[in-house]
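Entry:
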Amino acid sequence: MRISAKSDYAVRAMAELAVAYGANGPALKAEQIADAQEIPLNFLLGILRELRNAHLVRSVRGRDGGYRLSRPPAEIALADVIRAVDGPLANVRDLSLSQLSYPGAAESLREVWMAVRGSLREVLENVSVADLATGKLPKNVRALAAKHQTERM
């Protein structure tokens, strides 16, 4: 899986909004989010539109307007954000994995793709925007990150 710039920016924007979330928290202007996360403003505006269409953020009008999360950050998984801007987490040739079949030596490849999708979901559906914003990632995610960090060195 390739994580697009769009997904990366969307998750970072949501983390900024999570920090400001609360009954009295301010709505953040797109410019504030763009500056804080070093995201090109025009690109961010398109992303915020997609997040709004997916009901993950809402726009607030007026002088103190901007953007807010539509629900508590603990209820928004990173998978929700990525799906909102880039579609399915993992697909092969835009087909359902149940539609795939391979001949001969590649016959088991469907199971590999299923495992890849399952692994992505295991991480991205279990890390919330709140986890990201507070730096309190689930233990299994930290363990996976540590394992793969040491493997790369």
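The helical segments are 5-20, 30-37, 41-53, 78-86, 109-124, 129-134, 139-152.
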